[in-house]
Amino acid sequence: MENPLKYFAELRDPRVERTREHLLEEILLIAIAAVLSGADSWNEIEDYGQAKVDWLKTFLKLPGGIPSHDTFNRVIAALDPGEMEKGFVAWVSSIAQLTAGEVVSIDGKALCGTRERGKSALVHMVSAWANSNNLVLGQRKVEEKSNEITAIPKLLAALELSRTVVTIDAMGCQKNIAQQILGKQADYVLAVKENQGHLLEGVRDSFQMLPADAVAEQIDCGHGRVERRTCAVLADLSLVEQAGEWAGLRGLVRIEAERYHKATGVTERETRYYITSLPPDAVRLNQAVRQHWGIENKLHWALDVSFGEDLDRKRQKHAAQNFSLLKRIALNLLRQDKTSKLGIHGKRLKAGWDHPYLLKILGI
Fold this sequence. Notes:
This protein has 364 residues and is an alpha+beta fold. Helix content is 40%, strand content 21%. The chain has helices spanning 24-36, 42-51, 53-56, 69-78, 81-95, 148-158, 175-183, 197-209, 282-292, 294-305, 319-336, 344-353, 355-362; strands at 103-111, 123-130, 135-142, 165-168, 187-192, 214-222, 225-234, 251-261, 267-276. It has a 9-stranded mixed beta sheet with strand order 3-2-1-4-5-9-8-7-6, with helices on both faces. β8 and β9 form a beta hairpin. α1 packs across α2, α1 (24-36) crosses α12 and α2 packs across α4 (69-78). The longest helix is centred in the C-terminal third of the chain and has 18 residues, at 319-336. It is elongated. It starts with 23 loop residues before the first helix and ends with a helix.
């Protein structure tokens, strides 16, 4: 694995030069190594550094020793998040091999612990997840008093998406976003819900009045349930008002999902609709919609369960945004390691115990 730190070499140091007791690259390296090894707070990062100081001195200069937790907090919170994200995207681009047709899922996640007492605002991040590569490709913060509609175009602009299939939930079902995805030489599958009322009505009417061009069924068993997903696709757009305003629109998609829970005997049914720039291939579209949920299962769930992101209460300046990026760096590094069959939690423990394993993951 290639060391990610070289892609952050151009980060501007926010500190006054005469007050710099610690090298910026070493602050970042210790923080990433600590997060890889199980640390989830500034105090834990300092404790990790103090416990590993003799080992760290074998390859770091540490002119001021191990930084305090306040220093880790202050310096990382002050780093420009735009520069951090630019370095992250450059690093991921160097290790990702996006193949033709790979599904790239885009979805938002609230950092629940960042809500301050008496206030409703919290930090909300939008991430892009490459399903086949098992990698976070990039992230953008949703600005206060805004929503994902403004953050998604900024994230798309930063990514190389040629020949991929971009899937986004209903918030991203916007004409300008569809146009932008096509401009990146990619295709889209966008969920349609009530926020696009006229479009949803036209899609529903189409499936009621017209015969499907293709139908495919997929059955999955596991986690105590049996799920059947039936995908129907239409290429006829005649009943969709202003269909021509959706760049590259070639098909309408209906997914009918039926879940049977073995323990309770309860059956749940749900119908979802999508628009797509792909041709009416029901098998492919059924799989693309299914893969979209990889961002929930492999990214958001892992960040909450293995990295405790929802419990994270970092609020100073850009602390929450930049620390979330450190966690995504760590997750990418751990996901890319094929030498261990452990899960993410187990790999973090191993990284804390096994110095050669940690150095291998870091590419040092």
